[in-house]
Write a structure and sequence with these properties.
The structure holds 2 protein chains of 2 kinds.
Chain A (H helix, E strand, L loop, with lengths): L3 E4 L2 E4 L5 E7 L5 E8 L3 E10 L2 E4 L6 E7 L2 E6 L8 E8 L14 E2 L3 E5 L1
Parallel strand pairs in A: 2-11
Antiparallel strand pairs in A: 1-3, 3-8, 4-5, 4-9, 5-6, 7-8, 9-10, 9-11
Chain B lengths: L3 E2 L4 E5 L4 E3 L2 E2 L6 E8 L6 E7 L7 E2 L2 E6 L4 E6 L8 E9 L7 E2 L3 E6 L1
Parallel strand pairs in B: 2-12
Antiparallel strand pairs in B: 1-4, 3-9, 5-6, 5-10, 7-8, 8-9, 10-11, 10-12
Classes of the chains: A mainly beta, B mainly beta.
Amino acid sequence: DAGITQSPRHKVTETGTPVTLRCHQTENHRYMYWYRQDPGHGLRLIHYSYGVKDTDKGEVSDGYSVSRSKTEDFLLTLESATSSQTSVYFCAISEKGFIVPSDYTDTQYFGPGTRLTVL
Amino acid sequence: AQKITQTQPGMFVQEKEAVTLDCTYDTSDPSYGLFWYKQPSSGEMIFLIYQGSYDQQNATEGRYSLNFQKARKSANLVISASQLGDSAMYFCAMRETGGSYIPTFGRGTSLIVHP
């Protein structure tokens, strides 16, 4: 199993409060991703990182920010949580990402998920 | 438009029987990869199988095989000899070489295996 942990695993917070989720990997993979999973929507990409301090937005990035100061850690921050951000959040890692644009074989491995409830 | 379509929200199968989970995709890239993941009730996402667009043979991993029909743009997952532990959500995903190269996921199919 890929060494990916997420913390916290469960969190309940109130609207308007800041929340930070942490993803930690021991695989030394360059690429890291944050997804959210909601019923009927599958997995949707929030942000991703292609190296230390290199990040970019995904399809549902509004209201979220990320930071990556070390290879092993990728933080997702909700600056002011809203009820619409109640979801299960998954971190994923991959080794090759898009170093070589024609290489589509890169496989993502996922963390255990964080269940966030915003009241 | 959805790039990955999983039309079966829920499937039921008898233990020890085979089951096929459908996945169709939409891309204009000649090079792409197709992935299947399993999500049991415990929540983790487990990588199952991968198929490349140029692979001549269908991918197989133990009881999992991928029925890849390129012309029809379908990449169905076949689970042989179903087990109770196969009950889970199953997600199909595609990575293209155009755009951001980050996989796009379907909405998933729930599989329940009956004893």
